[in-house]
Automatic annotation (TrEMBL):
Domain Carboxylesterase type B, residue spans: 72-477
EC numbers: 3.1.1.-
Protein name according to UniProt: Carboxylic ester hydrolase
High-level lineage: Eukaryota, Fungi, Dikarya, Basidiomycota, Agaricomycotina
Family per record: Belongs to the type-B carboxylesterase/lipase family.
Signal peptide (from-to): 1-21
Protein source organism: Ganoderma sinense ZZ0214-1
Length: 507
């Protein structure tokens, strides 16, 4: 049940209830002692789970909170889960993976991925690891933009939530048998974009919170400054009766939660006509935590020097193009790209994209399907553009800029095709959720910082490191040949053009 007033949530955010009040002990419950609290777990076969552990204490919440997000299942949003191999000793010092969920920074929770799959498989491989997953605040509660937010120093609250979760893990994971110096962060979609943001946060100072990173179906954000999101702040202020307030932030703090949620939900999202240009809830440079746009930070070399894996699926843009089916002419497509994806650009600057993304279904996404799957007059054209703009060009840009400076690997999933959408966004996470080969590679990476490291799996092939010259990637396939190594060279001219133009005209 939602509290009726956001101010009533602040005491809840600042409280830190005793763990024993959250879980009752049982005769067989494994327990972990943390400072003055005891955490009770439950064991299911080879996995012991410790769930809904609060990780945020004062003064953290009071410094950052504009508002605290209410949740229908719990008033305590800022919690995390820890899953360990059953029987893990406190001094085991196992490697740790931290999962940051996706959902466009507007939906999601830390139960999105079943971490038991990875822990079970790690035990089978003889490479036991610990899995953790953090919650963070979303949409207007976690990523409200605008000049007022920037000046108050409270931008990107959701990223701060994630960072605070990482600090908690650094401090306490040893009590669960984990090694605080062997932490890898991993996320899909918005989670991958979050991982990319943590790589460049604080000028690339990761505070020793992680030693490796995995960016799945999302790498670098093509976004600019948080003050550029003023229209969304003003719209929410108007919707909630705060437009004329002397202190709009103070006014928003006392807006009923359901009103703020309704206002946020009324803004077109990434599944509507704007598609992936609907950037209102994406992290933006805030002048403090993200001191500059993510791409600019990477170009300047202000990025954590840790090994990383970056990957995704072949048809990343298909599910985001379904809201733009009314685009039927070159002029409409040009206007769509210019006005929504490259704000401030001219038609002349954007026009080359008409040739790079022609209205030829055989060249569109889902790729490799010929004339099939053209669900609307320009569906496959828009799909190809969106996927390359937001995912592929940013991923290749990251790998090109950094793979000769820090160990990097790339994968591409072409398994699990769906009708009309191909190997769509998130297909790679489905493969990992099923415990397939990618799961083994991730476990090896978490354990050794090399997806080829260690032993215990007989279904892997050598995965070469990515470098700007050879550009080799692991391809996950359907059919008898399950894995292959290929060159990452699709649509080179188009991806280079998109990377350059999105840097000049960020969202």
């Amino acid at each position: 049940m939602f509290p009726s007033d956001l101010s009533s949530l602040l005491p809840l955010a600042l409280s830190f209830a005793p763990f024993s009040a959250l879980w009752g002990p049982s005769a067989v419950s494994p327990t972990v002692r943390l400072d003055q609290a005891t955490v009770y777990g439950t064991t299911n076969g080879p996995v012991t789970s410790y769930l809904n552990i609060p990780f945020a204490e004062p003064p953290y919440a009071i410094v950052l909170a504009i508002v605290t997000e209410p949740r229908p299942e719990s008033e305590d949003c800022l919690n995390l889960n820890v899953l360990v191999p059953a029987g893990t000793a406190a001094d085991a010092k196992l490697p740790v993976i931290v999962f940051i969920y996706g959902g466009g920074f507007s939906v999601g929770e830390n139960t999105q991925y079943n971490g038991e799959v990875m822990v079970r498989r790690s035990v089978e491989m003889g490479q036991p690891i610990i899995y953790t997953a953090v919650n963070y605040r979303l949409h207007a509660f976690g990523f409200l933009g605008g000049q007022e937010v920037k000046e108050a120093g409270i931008g990107n609250i959701g990223l701060h939530d994630q960072r605070e979760g990482l600090r908690w893990i650094k401090k306490y994971i040893g009590a669960f048998g984990g090694d605080p110096n062997k932490v890898t962060i991993w996320g899909p979609s918005a989670g991958g974009l979050s991982v990319g943001s943590h790589l460049v946060a604080n000028d690339g100072d990761n505070e020793g919170l992680f030693r490796g990173a995995v960016l799945s179906c999302g790498t670098l954000l093509p976004t600019g400054d948080i003050s550029d999101q003023q229209r969304f702040f003003d719209g929410i202020a108007a919707d909630t009766g705060c437009a004329t307030a002397t202190d709009k932030l103070a006014c928003l703090r006392i807006v009923p939660a359901e009103n703020l949620t309704a206002s946020a939900a009324s803004i077109p999202n990434i599944l509507d006509y704007p598609g992936l240009s609907a950037s209102q809830w994406f992290p933006h440079a805030d002048g403090s935590f993200l001191k500059e746009p993510v791409r600019e930070a990477v170009l300047a070399g202000r990025i954590a020097d840790v090994p990383f894996i970056a990957g995704g699926s072949l048809d990343e843009g298909t599910i985001f193009a379904t809201g733009a089916w009314n685009i039927t002419t070159d002029a409409e497509f040009l206007e769509y790209m210019r006005d929504l994806y490259f704000p401030g650009s001219s038609s002349e600057e954007v026009a080359p994209l008409l040739a790079l993304y022609p209205n030829d279904p055989a060249q569109g996404s889902p790729f490799g399907t010929g004339e099939e799957n053209q669900l609307a007059p320009m569906y496959k054209r828009v799909s190809a553009f969106q996927g390359d703009f937001f995912f592929e060009s940013q991923r290749r840009s990251l790998l090109t800029m950094r793979s000769d400076k820090q160990p990097a690997w790339m994968y591409l999933v072409q398994r699990g095709r769906s009708k009309g959408f191909g190997y769509s966004h998130g297909t790679d996470i489905q493969s990992i959720a099923r415990g397939e080969e990618l799961t083994d590679y991730l476990i090896q990476f978490v354990a050794t910082l090399d997806p080829n490291g260690g032993s215990g799996s007989n279904r892997m092939i050598p995965w070469p490191r990515y470098d700007p010259a050879a550009r080799q990637m692991l391809v996950v396939l359907d059919g008898e040949e399950r894995l292959a190594v290929e060159r990452d060279d699709a649509r080179e001219e188009a991806l280079e053009f998109l990377a350059a133009l999105s840097l000049k005209y960020p969202l």
